[in-house]
Amino acid sequence: MFTQPVTLFKVFGFDIRLDASWLLLAVLVTWSLAVGFFPQMRPGLSPGIYWSMGVIGLIGLAASILLHELAHALVARRYDLPIRSITLFLFGGVAELREEPRSPSSEFLVALAGPVMSFALAGLLWLSAQAIGAGVGQGAGQGAGQGAGDLLGVVAGYLATINLLLATFNLVPAYPLDGGRMLRAALWGWKRDIVWATRIASLLGSGFGVLLIVLGLMNVLQGSFLAGMWWFLIGMFVRGASSMALQQTVAREVLSGRPVSAFMRREPVAVDPGTTVDRLVSDYVYRHYYKSFPVVSGDRLLGWVVIDDVKEVPREEWGRAVVEGLMRPATEENTITSGEDVGVALDRMRQSGLSRLLVVDGGRLVGVLSLKDLIGYLQIARDLGDRRPPAPRRSAGA
Description:
alpha+beta, 2 domains, four-stranded mixed β-sheet
């Protein structure tokens, strides 16, 4: 996402979250409906009515996106795939899987569920629009109710079209769109090679992203600035997400089945809770160049201190303030056990945004796992063309 999402509520046990970037989409959609689309469909009405229709259209769009993602999430739950949350953001919504599907069939069905839901919504909304239109026709001459019913029918027709477009667009066989995930599942099932399947689907996704970027630039040059920028941004997102998907799949394939202990740095540099901020900066930060340090008493992990928190302490207090007053607690989000799979560690880093995890066994700090070390290992494996390189032999220090 683009910012830290805010959790709004829960549906079927899933956290529904809102990224701040979605507010831009909300403004653009409401404005384009109130100023452009609905006035063309029903001219001669007051601005207040058009803006009311725009807000109703926005609410219907949000509900449609949410139902699309809920379909993914419910089918994923059927196959025991944990869903972290559903987030609405600038380009629609996403159901965030904690782990990749375990089989081609489960990935195919999870991906298919969203477009099926959108097609179903398109059909129901179209039938509703037709029924409202028929009712309005039969009730002609009955007064104000006729106008309201006609306008609701227009909004329902708009939402039917949007859901049809949403389903159709998502079926394009370009990763990370649903069609791309279905293609990857089919290729995975055929060759039994998820890396090869992801590479093909991601290549198509990258190409589709470039096509959207070019389409956007052409629209801008022809004077359609808003539409052009929209296609340009979607193209950039699709291209970036397809490349990221390939990197994550390769990383998972290379690292899966390996324990954290094979990659962690043992005997990490740790800080005593009574260390002053002045000493922390001079003796640790400027000596080791790390932005965070575990805080231990003996070998027992108490928490960790992050340089961002140090910046909040006035410099005149650095000689008196101690690490214990600044440290953050050790939680499941920033710790992992030495026997856990490295793939789980990667997922945890991705979800939390952290680049280092504290490795803890029985409350004791036994090491630190660094994203920088994992990336270096993966780059060497890539350069050597090695799909299953040997596990590293870690040295002390972190």
